[in-house]
Amino acid sequence: LPHHIRQLITAKRRARSRWQRSRYPSDRQHYDSIANELRNVLSCHRSASYDNYVSSLSEHDKSLWRATKRLLHYPNVSSPLRRADNSWARSDEEKAETFASHLRLMFQPLPDSDPVNTSRVLEFLDSPLPLSLPPPPFTPSDVSFQISRLPTQKSPG
Q: Which domain of life is it from (predicted)?
């Protein structure tokens, strides 16, 4: 960017900072005027640089053709999908449903090869967990005894 535009950007930042600190209406007006001036200058600079770019295009160094190709390059559009009944799925919801039905058909679970083992595993998983005994109770004197057994020159962690 040119030097005068960079100076306007720094002036705008300073004016915004001053307005945010003071919240005076006069500071806000000053900030708005600098922001509008910067917007106009940037628009003129952008327009002038585009005019300069367009005027520098030439058919001899293929720059004109590259610019034309870049302007006429359309983004790829996702094509519709064919459903199982040979109709087209065009909307996103229809495509999602088509993919879901296709994946549902492709990823079927394998048949159960050992039903006896499967039933034993299911019975084991459904059985209740054994209850554990509560921890043994302790008194403050037990805590003090354990603390007294710790080395004195070491940190507790």
A: Eukaryota
